[in-house]
Amino acid sequence: MQEPEEKKIALELLETEQAYVNRLHLLDQVFYTELMKEAKTGKTVPEEVVKMIFSNISSIYQFHAEFFLPELWKRMEDWNRNPRIGDVIQKLAPFLKMYGEYVKNFDKAVELITAWSEKSPPFQELIADIQKRKVCANLTLQHHMLEPVQRIPRYELLLKDYVRKLPPQSPDRGDAEKALEMIFMVAKHSNAAIAEMERLQNLWVVYQRLGLEDDIVDPSNELIKEGPIQKISTRNNSTSEKYLFLFNNMLLYCVPKVIQVGAEFQVHLRMDVEGMKVRELKDTEFPHTFLVSGKQRTLELQARSGDEMNAWIK
Length: 314
Prior knowledge:
Blueprint: H1 5-41, H2 47-54, H3 57-77, H4 86-92, H5 99-119, H6 121-131, H7 141-165, H8 173-209, E1 223-233, E2 238-247, E3 250-256, E4 265-272, E5 277-281, E6 289-293, E7 298-302, H9 306-313
Antiparallel strand pairs: 1-2, 1-7, 2-3, 3-4, 5-6, 6-7
């Protein structure tokens, strides 16, 4: 008898889950535990740093090892009598929100490993020592840490496949479809959390370049475009190098600082986007010129090319 397709996929889910729990065990019970033990002696790295690197890996490991994997085992042993996994995955889905924290922290964790490996040779040696063990399969700590980041998309793919292969009258159809919907929402939640974190990080970097001026720093702002621009002075027919930051609510007209200590730019003028008008100027002497007029004042600006001018106007 050929095994039904949906059972093969359910078995693949079980096998990959077993391998995944082994990987989580390595991260939590080996890397985290041993690095924490050394940190407590005060010789390698502060305990706080180890906690920050591994985020909430312990909760993730316990959930998969003590709940999800045993539940899957029970299901597969009983498959011939009760061929279903949809309800177990529905129980799993809400807990996958735990991954949001781990995934958001991932880049920071990798940065910390790099920074502390340079700062603390004993820290680096301990990681290298664990990486040499057979259980690590010649892979780095960073590589193993990527596994939880990739696990939710993997569930989504396997479950999609499972739902596709289910016979129309299968007793698991309703549960499996609902489970897939839940996993899809969790994956979206996780991706949205990452996107929002990246947006805030990029925004913070921009604010630092601008010298963290109080009235500019606002987490709800959105940076739309930035870049160098020439300011045309009609008085003496000359141009000077300036720099623009366009946000959803304001245009910052800046001067690059010569001595770059702290901030990179000085804000010369802040214009509200509300009520602002922008139009191209046909100037033979200064091509690619456009006019920005707002409540505060009017600027005559020159871009480096026609395309660049159109991009700013748009």
